[in-house]
Design goal:
The complex is a heterodimer of chains A (about 140) and B (about 200). Chain A is mainly alpha-helical. Helices cover about 75% and strands about 5% of the residues of chain A. Classes of the chains: A mainly alpha (about 140), B alpha+beta (about 200).
Chain lengths: ~140, ~200
């Protein structure tokens, strides 16, 4: 009893965090979202190639560049999502959000489809799915 | 009569202790360490006494400071990190830390700053510190959230009082830069042959 009292007396009321979130990575769905925004922007530019291209290039050249950039960005969306899926989210998260695996499956599939699609509506759909992951992510951060 | 006198003395002593405790709380704060980014200097479960406010000018380098985490997801948590870069200095981060073009010798640090975290050369603002965890491979610090303004620092560690076996003053290390002796900067040069290379 005396020992408990002493411990209570000397124990600080504040905690100082010698903090690190590097071993488990610095996670944020914003990374995937930013790349998906790029995908959608490229899809829009692809549609407006006539007005967007510079004078020095043909429409075909401009669209070829769009496709190359979109391919790269869509792949980065997938990579960021995979890191979240496999590294950040843990079994208790899946218990609480049972739709999580399906959601990641659908979203990464949609990111794959973005490589083939030139339709900004498809990019918007991808962003909508990432938004759902983002919502769950920040709910888990509050817990 | 004697009993009343004793009671009065005890009450007076209790009041004095309370006033003293209140006065000390305005100057000092106590903090329990959580996390491992400041190992081996601080271990989880250490109890520290900090002096409130930012370290005095001229004594800032190497101080372990408590600051409010600048990132929104940190919920304003109190972070413990070491001051390695001072206002106005140019820092090159990534691998070894360079201050104004000289490698900082950091015996307290271990682990590496990954090359991909290289931040180029940043000149710190006149009121900003660059803070790092001693465990470079496992710390979230100025490499992630950038320099911290002086007003974000709420205190600096002066004493560890628990566990008793490791209790003692927490004094900042001397600052040593490669090629800079007590008499000031010396030119960097290769020595031929290398001094005591360990070869027979």
């Amino acid at each position: 009893m005396i020992r408990n009292a002493i411990e209570r007396l000397i124990r600080p009321s504040q905690t100082g965090y010698a903090h690190c979130d590097l071993p488990c990575g610095v996670y944020d769905p914003a990374q995937a979202r930013i790349e998906a925004e790029s995908v959608k922007a490229v899809q829009e530019r692809y549609q407006k190639a006539d007005s967007m291209k510079s004078a020095a290039e043909t429409v075909e050249d401009y669209r070829a560049r769009c496709l190359a950039i979109k391919e790269e960005r869509a792949n980065m969306v997938k990579e960021h999502l995979w890191v979240l899926w496999t590294d950040y989210f843990k079994p208790p998260h899946v218990e609480k959000y049972p739709q999580l695996h399906q959601l990641f499956w659908d979203t990464t599939k949609e990111a794959g489809l973005a490589k083939k699609s030139q339709d900004p509506a498809q990019g918007e759909k991808l962003l909508g799915l990432i938004k759902q992951i983002d919502t769950i992510f920040w709910e888990t951060k509050k817990a | 009569m004697m009993q009343r006198l004793w009671l009065a003395l005890v009450a007076l002593a209790a009041a004095a202790v309370s006033v003293l405790a209140l006065a000390l709380r305005r100057v000092l704060m106590r903090v329990e360490v959580a996390g491992e980014s400041m190992t081996p200097a601080l271990l989880p479960g250490d109890y520290l006494i900090l002096r409130r406010g930012s370290p005095p000018a001229g004594m800032e380098y190497g101080q372990i400071v408590a600051l409010h985490g600048p990132r929104p997801e940190g919920d304003g948590r109190l972070l413990l990190k070491r001051v390695v870069g001072l206002p106005g200095e140019a820092l090159r981060v990534g691998g070894a830390l360079q201050v104004n073009g000289r490698v900082l010798i950091e015996p307290y640090a271990h682990g590496d700053t990954p090359a991909e975290q290289h931040r180029g050369i940043n000149r710190l603002a006149p009121d900003a510190y660059f803070v790092l965890g001693d465990h470079r491979g496992a710390s979230t610090d100025s490499r992630d959230f950038g320099p911290v303004p002086r007003e974000a620092v709420v205190g600096y560690a002066i004493l560890r009082y628990w566990p008793v076996a490791r209790a003692g003053w927490l004094r900042p290390p001397d600052r040593r830069l490669l090629g800079v002796g007590p008499e000031g900067p010396q030119p960097l040069y290769w020595q031929t042959p290398a001094p005591d290379a360990g070869n027979p």
